[in-house]
Write a structure and sequence with these properties.
Layout lengths: L24 H11 L20 H12 L6 H7 L12 H10 L8 H5 L11 H14 L7 E3 L6 H8 L4 E5 L2 H16 L4 H19 L10 E13 L6 E3 L5 E3 L7 E7 L5 E7 L3 H4 L15 E2 L6 E2 L1 H9 L4 E11 L4 E4 L3 H16 L1 H5 L12 H5 L11 H24 L2 H18 L9 E2 L4 E2 L14 E4 L8 H18 L8 E4 L12 E6 L9 H16 L35 H23 E11 L4 H14 L2 E9 L16 E8 L13 E2 H22 L5 H19 L2 E2 L8 H20 L10 H13 L3 E3 H11 L3 H8 L2 E4 L2 E4 L32 H15 L1 H10 L6 H13 L5 H9 L2 H7 L24
Helix pairs in contact: 1-2, 2-7, 8-16, 8-17, 9-15, 9-17, 12-15, 15-16, 15-18, 16-17, 16-18, 19-20, 20-23, 21-22, 21-23, 22-23, 23-25, 24-25, 24-29, 27-28, 27-29, 27-30, 28-31, 29-30
């Protein structure tokens, strides 16, 4: 549970809401994790790719708790959220859910039978439950139901869940791509309903027309074998021998052990061209020493000629690709058999002839020759494309892909007049939207950025991670047949749509959907009662840049259907609320970096949006913000935006919202938990201009106390939070203290920003974590750099984390991380993140003569004294590793480390914070046992040697 009562302010007249009281956070967090089963996700997730979606339970909690009164019973709240069994249980629903989570590993059946109820997203409230909710809600809102608005609706889960509870709902979205999905979810699902027979009829006609136009590009070389996928690459010419070099990192096509393995063996012909021999389930004799794991392209990008073995460096390969000095090449064909099975074969001349035919058609047809010729902007996520010569959106597709994908766009446009004349307008729009989503979704698996999944022997996705990364291996797919095809995709999309229809109550009205800037909404002042918003993620996701690839295809089919949202050449980047440094490259300078300018823009944009939300809310209205971010800058910006717009922060709640270390986000700035931060619009506006400032020294101790209390409560609560998320979750109470005292000034009357309070909170919570999880004595007596290094491992539980997080930890103990980077080699940059270095990167090789050692390695193991305690322990690890236990004992005695408390404290701390599969942990353990233990006079608790999985390991704070 979590409790956040409204503080005693001038707003005592506000009726407290459930979001401002106790919430069953742990039970809802468990349901968030249950929902994240990739085998069956909520239906809106299958409509079309999108880049950020909140879990259903967290969204339901935010919606219901924002409109229900504080007196709402938590069991009733969970029951209305469809959490808990229908049968009588002992104790509260929260306790029941927590018990089930704790005994998951002991179950005999599946998870659903173990919990005794389905996952909540599959269940909608009954009519009687909706009546109960409405009656209680109306009692808090003067007899009427409040309108719930999501101003940045994105994937649509918040407004859709509001419709499921039959609440008046409004949604706004700037980007046309998710706006198309929102029309299906929020307009057509409640108003048009199930139209399967109509969709099937038109889909079949679209598919037949498009299929007839592209089947020549996928010839059946052998009777009954229809090509499904051409696994393709690029060929360049060797500078030395003139032979063709395919840019293939590995020759495996399929590696799964639960079925056939498939590899390709290349052979150079006499004329220097390459022939490919596909080996299906080869044995060692058939491979004859050939290693499919060793392709011409190395991990670093250098490419070795398979004929003369001369290497072409990565920079030159990139230059050739950029200049168009390459040829497309097919090196394996996956085909469909007549009985529905599939197989793999070597490419034949007919396959290459079909590719040439597609290219000739694209070049000779006026429509195709100019299709998607819109330039690709040079942006944060698109710059890599320019490095490979991909400057127009058509460049992201091979000629066969252009011809195939366009055939479906042309077919949809061909039948559009008939569809619009044969159906009412809403039904026709719904049909055309569904038909278009199928081809737009297929783009993800039929482009030059679509890689080949060698584990499955199947096309992968263009956006496995959130960037436009160039692929040396790509897939030309036959989208008219075989699984990755138009009809199959449409069937899955329609199944999701029909499920969305089924989940809504019969009485549900359409949501009011607008497409535009959230800072300029089409509502009168006071029109809205409740806002629930999941705002754009600062600098984490470049929504518009990433969605442009879908936008250009959607526009080709839907610009006449939705002319209001498909007017512009590309998606709107000028009004997008993100911190994108690349937008400010041309104006940065004179003391203002592009990142600073991006941050200023984001803060101003969010302030504008929150001010607009403040305007449209009625006095006493509520806004709940779902925020998932780690970086202090993001929280600083969010808080200032809320304060500037006039909201009074009334409550904060942390909730587990994501699978820890989820794919594609491991090193991102997005946290594994969400903070629900609630603000109210006062009945009487505060006079911020004439407010009496509060001295920072008076606020500082309160912020530290609030952060420490929050951290201790979170640790004791049993919520499944990582240590990083404990820090982030403590930001909420800290910001409430700061906001109540705002404006805040220092002794020289300079305004203090929220980030000062957040820095204090981070430092205070880190100390709580040290007290809770480190048993080593004398940590506070270590040098600052060693302490920072240990704290980084303790807090982040990984060697790689956000640079900003490492920077903030350094600030807390007086370490300038940039100053120590080169001199101590304690960390290095890794794709913009910070990566901690172990002993092997820091200690010179004791087995080499001193004159042969690298001067760039800072720790000399021959020294008798060391500047950092960390240097002592890392040097000892190295000596033990390369010279053995006996020599290490002599080395320790010579330096009198048996009486050195800082050595012992550092060694003990590293044993507690390092992962047990880390080389340094194993060496630290070796130092702490045997003869070296005796030399050092160690007396550690057994907990420092606990196996991974015990309560002292570097994983989550607690298990459910």
């Amino acid at each position: 549970m979590s409790e956040n009562p409204i503080q005693d302010t001038e707003e005592e007249s506000l009726k407290p809401l459930a979001i401002e009281g106790k919430l069953p956070l742990k039970a809802v967090g468990i349901e968030n994790l249950r929902e994240a089963n990739p085998q069956h996700l909520p239906p809106h997730r299958y409509l079309h790719p999108w880049f950020a979606r909140r879990p259903t339970p967290a969204s339901r909690l935010a919606i219901l708790a924002s409109v229900l009164p504080e007196s709402t019973d938590t069991d009733d709240l969970l029951r209305w959220m469809q959490i808990g069994p229908d049968t009588q249980i002992d104790g509260s629903i929260s306790d029941y859910v927590e018990r089930k989570k704790a005994t998951e590993d002991e179950r005999s059946g599946n998870l659903e039978s173990h919990y005794g109820y389905p996952r909540p997203f599959t269940q909608s409230p009954t009519d009687s439950e909706i009546n109960e909710i409405h009656e209680l809600v109306e009692s808090s809102w003067d007899g009427s139901l409040p309108t719930v608005l999501d101003p940045t609706a994105g994937g649509g889960i918040i407004p859709y869940e509001s419709l499921r509870y039959d609440l008046p709902t409004a949604a706004n979205e700037l980007n046309p791509v998710p706006s198309v999905m929102l029309r299906l979810m929020l307009n057509y699902a409640p108003s048009v309903g199930d139209i399967k027979s109509d969709v099937d009829k038109w889909a079949e006609q679209v598919n037949e027309r498009a299929k007839s136009r592209i089947e020549a590009y996928f010839p059946s070389v052998k009777d009954g074998q229809t090509p499904l996928n051409y696994v393709s690459t690029y060929k360049i010419q060797c500078n030395s021998c003139g032979a063709e070099i395919p840019l293939v990192p590995k020759w495996w096509i399929r590696t799964r052990s639960d079925g056939i393995r498939v590899a390709v063996r290349p052979e150079i012909r006499d004329d220097g061209s390459v022939n490919y021999d596909v080996l299906v389930d080869p044995d060692e004799h058939e491979l004859k020493g050939f290693d499919p794991g060793n392709g011409p392209v190395s991990r670093g990008g250098d490419t070795e000629c398979i004929n003369c073995h001369v290497v072409t460096e990565d920079d030159e390969v990139r230059s050739r690709l950029k200049q168009g000095e390459f040829e497309y090449d097919i090196y394996c064909v996956r085909y469909l058999e007549r009985d529905g099975g599939h197989g793999f074969r070597s490419p034949e001349p007919e396959d290459r002839d079909a590719f040439v035919s597609a290219r000739q058609h694209v070049e000779s047809d006026f429509e195709l020759a100019t299709f998607l010729s819109t330039p690709i902007p040079d942006g944060n996520k698109t710059s890599e494309l320019h490095n490979y010569g991909l400057t127009e959106w058509r460049d992201l597709f091979s000629p066969r892909q252009i011809a195939s994908n366009y055939a479906y766009i042309e077919a949809i446009n061909h039948f559009r007049p008939q569809i619009t004349s044969n159906h009412e307008s809403d039904t026709a729009e719904a049909i055309l939207t569904l038909l278009t989503l199928s081809i737009s979704k297929l783009i993800d698996r039929n482009s030059r950025l679509t890689s080949w999944d060698t584990s499955k022997g199947y096309p992968s996705q263009m956006f496995k991670s959130q960037n436009y990364s160039f692929k040396r291996i790509f897939v030309d797919s036959n989208i008219s047949v075989g699984g990755v095809d138009y009809i199959s995709y449409l069937e899955k999309i329609y199944d999701s749509y029909r499920e969305l229809v089924r989940y809504l109550p019969e009485s549900a009205d359409e949501a009011e959907l607008t497409v535009g800037d959230a800072a300029s909404l089409p509502y009168q002042e006071g029109d809205i009662q409740a806002v629930v918003v999941d705002p754009p993620y600062y600098s984490s996701i470049m929504y518009s840049e990433l969605s442009d690839i879908f936008y250009v295809w959607m526009k080709a089919a839907l610009r006449d259907v939705f002319p209001d949202i498909f007017q512009s050449e590309l998606t709107d980047k000028d009004n997008e609320a993100i911190a994108n440094p690349d937008r400010f490259k041309s104006v940065a300078g004179e003391g203002r970096s592009k990142r600073e300018l991006a941050n200023q823009y984001y803060e101003q944009k969010m302030s504008d949006i929150f001010s607009e939300l403040y305007r449209v809310l009625e006095p006493g209205g509520v806004m709940t913000v779902m925020f998932t971010h780690k970086e202090t800058d993001a929280w600083d910006t969010l808080t200032m935006s809320l304060i500037n717009s006039g909201f009074t922060i009334t409550s904060t709640h942390p909730i587990t919202s994501e699978m820890p270390q989820r794919a594609g986000m491991r090193e991102s700035a997005s946290a594994d938990s969400t903070l629900l931060l609630t603000g109210r619009k006062p009945h009487t506006e505060r006079d911020q201009e004439n407010a009496i400032p509060t001295l920072w020294n008076d606020v500082k101790s309160d912020t530290r106390a609030a952060a420490k209390d929050a951290a201790r409560d979170l640790i004791d609560s049993g919520l499944s939070l990582t240590k990083t998320d404990v820090i982030i979750s403590a930001f909420g109470p800290t910001l409430r203290v700061f906001a109540d005292a705002y404006p805040v000034v220092d002794d020289e009357d300079n305004e203090v920003q929220p980030r000062r309070a957040l820095e204090e909170a981070r430092e205070a919570v880190t100390q709580v974590l040290v007290d809770e999880y480190l048993e080593a004595e004398g940590i506070g007596n270590l040098d600052d750099i060693t302490e920072w290094y240990i704290l980084c491992w303790l807090v982040h539980e990984s060697d790689t984390f956000s640079y900003d997080e490492g920077l903030q930890l350094g600030y807390g103990i007086g370490v300038d991380v940039d100053d120590i980077k080169r001199s101590t080699k304690t960390w290095r940059k890794s794709r913009g993140d910070m990566m901690l270095r172990g002993h092997t990167d820091r200690v010179q090789n004791a087995n080499e003569k001193p004159e042969n050692r690298s001067s760039r390695t800072p720790v000399n193991p021959d020294d008798l004294s060391f500047g950092l305690a960390l240097d002592k322990v890392h040097a000892a690890m190295h000596i033990y590793d390369v010279k053995g236990e006996s020599a290490c004992c002599d080395w320790l005695r010579e330096r009198n480390f048996g009486s050195d408390s800082t050595f012992k404290a550092t060694l003990q701390a590293l044993l507690q914070v390092l992962p047990h599969d880390h080389e340094d942990w194993e060496l630290a353990r070796d130092l702490a046992v045997g003869r070296t233990r005796d030399v050092l006079g160690l007396d550690f608790s057994p907990n420092v040697f606990a196996d991974d999985g015990d309560e002292t390991t570097q994983s989550e704070l607690t298990d459910h």
